[in-house]
Amino acid sequence: MTLDTLPYVYKRLSMSGRRWTSRDVAALAGVSVATVSYVMNGRMGDRIPSTTRERVLSAARQLGYSPNRSAQSLRRQKTEQVCLVVDSIGVPVIDQLARDLHAAADEAGYGLITMVVGSAERAAKTIDLLHQRIADGAVIAPSNVTRFREEDLVELARGGLPLVAMDNVVRPIGFDVVRAPERDACGDAMDHLLTTGHRRIAFLGHHEEVNDLDARAKSERIGAYLAALQRHGLETDESLIVEGADDRVAGYRAAADLLRRPDRPDAIFAASARSAISAVWAARDAGLTIPDDVAVVGCGNLPETEITRPPLSTVGPPTTEDFTEVSRLLFERVLTKEPPPEREITNPWVFVPRGSA
Amino acid sequence: MTLDTLPYVYKRLSMSGRRWTSRDVAALAGVSVATVSYVMNGRMGDRIPSTTRERVLSAARQLGYSPNRSAQSLRRQKTEQVCLVVDSIGVPVIDQLARDLHAAADEAGYGLITMVVGSAERAAKTIDLLHQRIADGAVIAPSNVTRFREEDLVELARGGLPLVAMDNVVRPIGFDVVRAPERDACGDAMDHLLTTGHRRIAFLGHHEEVNDLDARAKSERIGAYLAALQRHGLETDESLIVEGADDRVAGYRAAADLLRRPDRPDAIFAASARSAISAVWAARDAGLTIPDDVAVVGCGNLPETEITRPPLSTVGPPTTEDFTEVSRLLFERVLTKEPPPEREITNPWVFVPRGSA
DNA sequence: CTGTTAGCGCATTCAT
DNA sequence: ATGAATGCGCTAACAG
To answer: For chain C, which bases have at least one atom within 7 A of a protein Cβ?
Structure first.
C-alpha cells in the first residue's frame, strides 16, 4: 500500500500541516495502533513477525512519522530529558559542565536541554518549568548572577524531581549538593600575595557581588579578599575594587585603568580567570613586569592559564575542571526507582602558583 | 478546606511521590477541573468570581500544584518553547545569538531550550527531537563542526515546524535562511594581505575543514584562503595550514610553532577570532612586531578585537554581532497562523582593518 | 458562572 | 501475534 492509495482524507490532511499519528501509520500499514507502538519502541522483541514489522516501518517512513513527544511523555510519565540550568553561557567552566553532562545523558539515552538564566525573572520561570516536569532531572549550576533559593530547590525535590545543585550555601534537602570550597583557596592565594609583600591588592569582581552588600557578604571570592586584608591588618581601599570586571574586555579595561594610576596596585586578584588573563595583558601592555611590578591571580582553572606569560597563578580545582561526578549523581537519581540518600560532595579547590604571583 | 480534611487517599498519594493534578486541586477547592483550568490560565477574565478564584488558587498553592507541561502541550498542540540548535557553546558569537533569541522568546512568552550538537550522532538525535515536536520552532545556528543537511531541514519544515537556518549553503525551502557572505569578505582580507606584500600566509582552521576534502571545499573561510592564493599565483604550502586550531590554546600553540620556524609565515589568517587573538599573543611572546614581522587577521567581530595590541583586523559583520533579525524571523513564523513566505536574508560581512594587518 | 464531556497522541493491559 | 479499550493530565466546547 502506498501513499497514492490512501483515502482522500489523508491526502487532505497531509496538506493541512497536521502531523501524522500512530493511527495514520496503523491505517497505512493495515495494523492496529498497538502494533505500531510495539514496532516503534522495539518492544516485544521477536513477538512481531518481521513482515509486519517491515510493513509498519515502511508506512512510518512513507509518512515521515515520528511519535509525538508530549503524548509520549504524558503517557510514560517521563520526558527522558534532563535539564542544565546555568546563569550564562560563554563561561568556560560552564561549557565543560555542559560537555560532561551531555556525555552522561547520551550514555543514558537522555537528551539535555540547557536553560540560561540571566535574571531573577528567568530564574522564577525556570523553577516553574521544572515544576511542570519539563525534564526528569536537573543540574543547577554555579551562579554568579542569580542564586536559587534553597526553599525553591527543596520544593522541587519534594515534588520528586531529581536534583543536583552546585552551590556552597544550600543544604542537601532531598537533593544532592556539590560544593567547591572557594573561600579557603582564595584565602590561601591572598595570604600568598600578602606574605610576599603585596599591600595594594585590587579586586576584579563580578557584577552584583561588589555593590550589593548582601551579595558581597555571600560571595566567597570577594569575601575571602576582604577577610584576608583584615586578617593582615590592612584597610580596604574601595577604589581598588572594580565591579563587573569579570569578562575579558571589562577585565582588560579595569586592569588598564588601575595600572595607569599613580598609586597603582601591586597585585590584582581577579574573580574570574578570564579577567585575570586580561589583567596579565593589560600589565604587559603597560610595560609592567609580572609578578615583580604587579602580581596577578585568577579564579578558575582554564587551560589558558598555561599559555600566558608568565603562566597564570590561579585558585581553582587542582587539575582541570571535571564534572563527571556531578553527572553521575544526577543520573543515579534519575535512573533509580528509590531515590538515593542525599549526598554532599566537596570538590577540592586550591591555590596553584604558576608564575604570575 | 485544608489539607487536613482531605480524604485518606490524597494523603497517601502525597507521600508516594505522585504529583497533584488539576483533579486534586478541583477536589480540594470543591470545584470542577474546568474551573481549575480556567483559573490557572487566567481565561474567562472576570467571568469567574474572585471568591472561587481565590479558593482554587489557595488549593493549588496548598498542594504545590503546577500543571503538567506534557499534558498541556499535548492538548494545546504547542509547547511554547523554541529551540536553539548550536554545535558548541563557549563560542562568543553563539552566546550573542542565545542572548538575542532569549530576549525575543521572553517577549513572546516562550521558553528557550538550547541543544548542543557536537557530533553527527547528536545532530541526528536533535533532528529527531524536533520532529517529535519538542519545540514550536527552531533556529539552526552556524555550524563549524556539524552541518545539517538541507533535506533534513526541508522535511522538518514540511512537517510544519517554523525554522530559521543560519547557513550559506541550504536553500530556503519552507523555512527562512540567514546568510553571511564570508567568502567574499575573507577574500578581501586575503587580497589585502597579498597586495601588501605578504607571501607566506598561514591558516589556522577548524577541525574538519582542513583535512576533509569535502568539508574544505565547502568551508568558505579556507576556500577563500586557497582561492586567494591561487588568484595571486602563489602555491599553497600545506605545512602552513593547521587543523583544529580554532580555540585559544590550540591557536596559541599553532601560531607559536609556526613562528618558531626558520621559514616562518609573514602573515596568519585565522578562521576564528579567538585563535587570531592567540596568534597576536604568540607573535608578541616570540618578540615579533605586528604587523611588520607578521600580520594577523581573524574571523568574527568580537569586542576583544579592540583590546589587543595592535587592535585585531578581522573579517566579520561591520559592527558587533546582532541576531535580533534572526529572532524576529523565527517568531514571525511561530506566532502567525499562516506561515510567511520563505525569506532569505544576507547579513553584511566585511574586512575591517584595525592594525594587525 | 460552572460542570460535563470529549478528545490531544500514545503505551499498555487484557482479550482473542 | 494482534486488536480493542483505557487513561495519562489537561483544555475547550457545550450545556446548563
So the answer is: 1-5, 7-13
For A296-351, how does the pLDDT look when each residue is reduced to its tens digit (9 = 90+)?
Answer: 999 988 889 989 999 999 999 988 788 999 999 999 999 998 889 999 999 999 99
Cell numbers of A347, please?
570538590
Give the closest of B67, B73, B95 to A90, CB-based. B95
Q: Is B119 on the interface with A (CB under 8 A)?
A: no
The pLDDT value given to residue B75: 93
Residue numbers in chain B where pLDDT is lower than 70: 1-18, 43-47, 143-146, 208-218
B109 CA to chain A: closest CA distance, Å?
10
Whether A194 and A236 have beta carbons less than 8 Å apart is answered as no
**Residue from the list B89, B113, B281 with its beta carbon closest to the beta carbon of A113:** B113
pLDDT of A199 strictly over 70? yes
CB pairs below 8 Å between A and B: how many? 139
C1’ D1 / CA A68, Å: 26
What's the length of chain A?
A: 357
A37/B210: higher pLDDT: A37
Whether the per-residue pLDDT at A9 is higher than 50: the answer is no
Measured between beta carbons, the chain A residues lying within 8 angstroms of B79 are 70
Residue ranges and CATH numbers for the domains of chain B are 6-67 (1.10.260.40), 78-180+321-347 (3.40.50.2300), 183-316 (3.40.50.2300)
The residue whose grid cell reads 501524522 is A20
| B155 CB within 8 Å of a chain A CB | yes
How far is the CA of B113 from the CAs of A85, A86, B134, B140, B250, in angstroms? 10, 12, 9, 12, 30
Query: Residues 6 or more apart from A234 whose CB is under 8 A from it?
Result: A194, A199
Nearest Cα neighbor of A255 from A198, A201, A324 is A201
Measuring CA to CA, which residue among A59, A51, A61 is closest to residue A24?
A59
pLDDT of residue A128: 92
